[in-house]
């Protein structure tokens, strides 16, 4: 029996179907989860997908963080459930304090949509095991509030503990401190990033490469071998 990976849909989510497809392409079973339901349907992992939950009112992810489903996600993530936050999902994870820091508007004040070069900094998390540290990949990026910020102490901890998971290369597209594109918690089960790996799992879509697929094969192998 294959792993079951839940994908949460909030009002304003855009990439839930794409994420479900990416999970299916990797060989796992996607399970649709609704923001009003606290029941995670016994899934083995959860993805918070991209979009503009609740229209990004107040702050991106600030309202979604209080959805009923997040009560369960937070509790189970603290108990070890693997959780991946993509773009808006990353913003929700910082608002829920499952990941440190926060997200602000891009420094150039414009929405950005581009293929983005990244370097894998940490290949030891539940979601990055099929990469190698130092590997350079290309993943689509699309956001308005993608600038990662944190105080100096938090940045020093992330760098010192190897918790920067991905870093922007060639160009910093949004002004994120330390060129940070994605981070992980200390346990390695919660990962958030602004680029969209679900858009790079098949040659015909996204970058024309499959550089995003290892996110989903990594967690499948992690769960199957657990």
TrEMBL record:
Subcellular location: Cytoplasm
Single annotated GO MF: phosphoribosylformylglycinamidine synthase activity
Reactions this protein catalyses: L-glutamine + H2O = L-glutamate + NH4(+); N(2)-formyl-N(1)-(5-phospho-beta-D-ribosyl)glycinamide + L-glutamine + ATP + H2O = 2-formamido-N(1)-(5-O-phospho-beta-D-ribosyl)acetamidine + L-glutamate + ADP + phosphate + H(+)
GO BP terms: 'de novo' IMP biosynthetic process
Catalytic machinery residues: 87, 196, 198
Cellular-component GO terms for this entry: cytoplasm
Pathway in which the depicted protein is active: Purine metabolism; IMP biosynthesis via de novo pathway; 5-amino-1-(5-phospho-D-ribosyl)imidazole from N(2)-formyl-N(1)-(5-phospho-D-ribosyl)glycinamide: step 1/2
CDD domains xrefs: GATase1_FGAR_AT
Keyword vocabulary terms for this entry: ATP-binding, Cytoplasm, Glutamine amidotransferase, Hydrolase, Ligase, Nucleotide-binding, Purine biosynthesis
Coiled-coil regions listed in the entry: none
E.C. number(s) listed in UniProt: 6.3.5.3, 3.5.1.2
PROSITE patterns with a match to the protein in the record: GATASE_TYPE_1
Function: Part of the phosphoribosylformylglycinamidine synthase complex involved in the purines biosynthetic pathway. Catalyzes the ATP-dependent conversion of formylglycinamide ribonucleotide (FGAR) and glutamine to yield formylglycinamidine ribonucleotide (FGAM) and glutamate. The FGAM synthase complex is composed of three subunits. PurQ produces an ammonia molecule by converting glutamine to glutamate. PurL transfers the ammonia molecule to FGAR to form FGAM in an ATP-dependent manner.
Subunit and partners: Part of the FGAM synthase complex composed of 1 PurL, 1 PurQ and 2 PurS subunits.
NCBIfam families for this protein: FGAM_synth_I, PRK03619.1
Record protein name field: Phosphoribosylformylglycinamidine synthase subunit PurQ
Organism: Streptomyces rochei
């Amino acid at each position: 029996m294959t792993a079951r990976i839940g994908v949460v849909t909030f009002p304003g989510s855009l990439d839930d179907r794409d994420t479900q497809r990416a999970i299916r392409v990797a060989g796992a079973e996607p399970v649709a989860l609704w923001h009003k339901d606290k029941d995670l349907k016994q899934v083995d992992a959860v993805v918070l997908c991209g979009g503009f939950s609740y229209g990004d009112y107040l702050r991106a992810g600030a309202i979604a963080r209080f959805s009923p489903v997040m009560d369960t996600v937070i509790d189970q993530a603290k108990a070890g459930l693997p959780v991946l936050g993509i773009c808006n999902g990353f913003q929700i994870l910082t608002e829920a304090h499952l990941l440190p820091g926060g997200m602000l508007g891009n420094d150039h004040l414009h929405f950005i949509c581009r293929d983005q070069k990244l370097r894998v900094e940490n290949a030891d998390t539940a979601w990055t095991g099929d990469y190698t540290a130092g590997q350079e990949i290309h993943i689509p990026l699309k956001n308005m509030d993608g600038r990662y910020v944190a105080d100096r102490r938090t940045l020093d901890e992330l760098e010192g503990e190897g918790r920067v998971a991905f870093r922007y290369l060639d160009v910093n597209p949004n002004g994120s401190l330390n060129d940070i594109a994605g981070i992980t918690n200390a346990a390695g089960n919660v990962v958030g990033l602004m680029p969209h790996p679900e858009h790079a799992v098949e040659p015909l879509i996204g970058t024309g490469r499959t550089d995003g697929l290892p996110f989903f094969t990594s967690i499948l192998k992690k769960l199957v071998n657990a």
